[in-house]
Each structure stands twice: as structure tokens, then as C-alpha cells.
Amino acid sequence: MPVIALPATLLNVERAAWTEIQAGQLTVPTAHAVQAAVTQFAAAGGHDRYQVEMGLKQAVRHPDQ
After folding, report:
1. Could you report the per-residue pLDDT of 1-55, keeping only the tens digit for each?
2. For residues 35 and 41, what is the distance between their CA atoms, to the nearest angstrom?
3. In terms of Cα–Cα distance, which of 50, 53, 43 is closest to 6?
4. Which are the contacts of 16, defined by CB distance < 8 A and separation ≥ 6?
5. How far is 51 from 42, CA to CA, in rounded Å?
6. C-alpha to C-alpha distances, 2 to 9, 47, 48, 52, nearest whole angstrom
7. Is the dihedral of CA 58, 59, 64, 65 positive or negative?
8. C-alpha angle with apex 11: 3 to 27, nearest 5 degrees?
């Protein structure tokens, strides 16, 4: 899988969602915000949306790997 440089704005929205998920309080607006940000970033950069989402989750949920 190619490494995609993820912008801070995308990382921040995923971090907010991950915090809500861990607290058992993920909201629909937060989930939609993440999906919209991933889709927009992928389209703008010509990346596969699924690759962006996988890389984003890896970066936020498992930063040491």
C-alpha cells in the first residue's frame, strides 16, 4: 500500500471521531464529517478513497506502527 501524506485537518477530524468511538459516543455528524473529509481529500489528490481511509485509521489508531 502506498504511503499517502495526510494533512493535519484530516488527522484531526479522525482523532475526534476516534475519541468519540472510544467513549461510546460517536455521533452521526462526526462520522459524516470524517467520511466527507476522506472522500474530498481522496478525490482532490487522485487517491483511492479506501486507501486514504485505511491509512488515516492506521495513523490515528496505531501511530506507533
Report:
1. 568 999 999 999 999 999 999 999 999 999 999 999 999 999 999 999 999 999 9
2. 10
3. 53
4. 30, 33
5. 9
6. 20, 10, 10, 10
7. positive
8. 130
Contact, 38 vs 53, CB < 8 A? Answer: yes
Q: What is the CA radius of gyration of the chain?
A: 11
CA distance 22 to 19: 5
Q: What is the DSSP letter of 53?
A: H
Predicted pLDDT at 2: 66
Q: For residues 59 and 17, is the Cβ–Cβ distance under 8 A? A: no
10 exposure class (CB count in 10 Å sphere: 0-12, 13-18, 19+): buried
